[in-house]
Batch of 2 targets.
Target 1
Amino acid sequence: MKLSFTTLGCPQWDLETIVSRAAEYGFDGVDFRGLQGQMNIYELSPFAADVEHTRRRFEDAGLAVTCFSSSITLVSKEREAQNIEELERYAELCARFGTRYIRAFGGRLNGADRSEALNTARSYMQRVEPILRQAGVKLIIETHDDWTRCEDVLDLLDGTSSDTVGVLWDVHHPYRMFGERPEKTWEALGSRIEYTHWKDSLPEANEPGKFKYRFMGEGDVPFGDIHSVLRTNGYDGWYTFEWEKRWHPDLEEPELAFPQYVRYMRALGAGK
């Protein structure tokens, strides 16, 4: 079981702390979603002028950069130019770090017609396919926003190549938001699932649709069933912890949440 975490969970850590703590806690890699408040990390010195030093630092620590989690939003016409630039910049970093994946969101509809949004997304993916092929990277669409149910993700995948577009299964969202069972998710999307995000939660009492994140195993997301589905079907990708400290500052500190995730997942993988 290959474990990583997104830097969303440690918004105060500098790069050196990220590398040292990842190795100390027993992670195998790091997924970059911002660094100390800056989301577009390609604008920062460690990923620009000092990128080779950064690459060597990860290599020396025995850590992979598992994914660059972008802000690309497929259904947003307003972000089209920005989406293209982000993809190009992250594709360059993928080449530097030997990273296969760039995460993208389907995005929120905000009242827009779903079919029109799909046309926008397909137009974007057609435009960027040559970029993805040339760079040898894959855009992975997260089960998130208005594209959380497996049926809706399938619509986004329609017409795309499995060589360039895959799925990031955030195992929390389909279950929590729609009660979607992991067997159903895998049956629909399994052939395109390349990567996973993990987090736990419990519904908020007397607040329908609201939930509170919890340490792994302290919520009710059926991780045993999810892991069984993945293992049975030969999944060998990353198990990435997405502790949303950046968006929810009241969450416990990463010094507590990160090692707890490793302990929980190692036990899960061992069948304990």
Note: The mean pLDDT is 95.
Target 2
Amino acid sequence: MADQQMHHWRKISKEVEFAGTPLRGDLDADVVVIGAGFTGLNAAIELATAGTRVVVLEGLDIGQAASGRNNGQVIPHHSKKSPSEFAALLGQKRGDIYNEMVANAPLRLFEMIRKYDIACDLVSKGWMQACHSLEALKRAQIFHAEWKAFGCEVEWLDSSAIAEKIGGGDFLGGWKALNAGYLNPYALTQGLARAAAQEGAVIHTRSMVTAIEKRGNGWFVKTADGSVRAAKVLVAANAVAGHFWPSLHKAMIPVRVYQIATASFSQDVQRKILPGREGVSDTSRDIRAFRYDSTGGLAMVGSHTVWFNAAERGKRKVMHRLTSLLPQVPDVPAAEYWEGVIAVVPDKVPRLMELAPGVLFAGIYSGRGIAMSTVWGRNAAQILTGRLTDSAMPMPIGGLQTVAGHGVGVQVARFIHPWHRLQDRLDKRA
């Protein structure tokens, strides 16, 4: 999510903005981190607290890409699969490691927010997955049962219970994860950048990496106006990774999403809609997830059909999707509308790839990165510095893993939204 506009989360952020400067000249470091999103900043904090000289290079200002512009939901659940399905995919041992990471990642993030006193409007009242069809309801029952058996705090919600908790909708049921929540993602990026700098990391913004070159026993990471020489490089740039490494962009599929934010609701409306202040995602293929923001309005995210900015039309059209679900919401244009890009992979498993000896890539969370990046970035930093082996991760470290049929996948992602919406309608009739 990448243009440098005054988007909604930035407008209402209470965290002091990080004052970054472009890299000018040449620096030396032990590790260069490319990308100051959640993964890169968590890695930088881990590296700096361990005494490693770390330089972070961010192509934009802090919080202007996907990390700072998403819906802000902190979710302890996989994107599509159940815990047992991930165990089957990764093997039981590594599957258990991954499931533990997913289950506990929100709690680790909440600890970071408390430790560094980050003013990101954290609300940790849980997250609900609402089911739009009988098939989705059956899947949700599996999710609930397996996470409960795994030791997680979850509860089942029948149709009346979820209607009461949401304040509307025609959902057939769902489940709730208690160790979950939501926050202002832009404010979180600012707070993490502040924390990394406090710990000793050097952060340069507006310093887009143009090349990574091998020289002797180390690497030179180049920008337009400078370079950093280091022994190790951590690449933590996802959907806007650029082309500084051959074919890296083919490791992920960019998916366009939109978001709206409503005006503040009256106290009467707030008592009726999400009175418990949980975050919500539904199971439809046509993505729909929403939660309150700090102003008392709702922020909703969804998938986009084509690649263009449709701000004024979007404020009306997308708002209609919300009012059709929640009749108590005033049927007026949304107060804010913005678009952006997230990175996804078909199997929904984050990537940990050795691009070359000493160059590690970490990231691609397929829409579930706020919580996972906390542990993924930290662990990637520990692997890069030899304090952790890949045996502690859900998968062995491999080489560059590109998406098969990448070009076709990109086009499908751009235009599959109408088909998903039709499938959702057919599901409800089944």
Note: The chain has 13 helices and 18 strands.
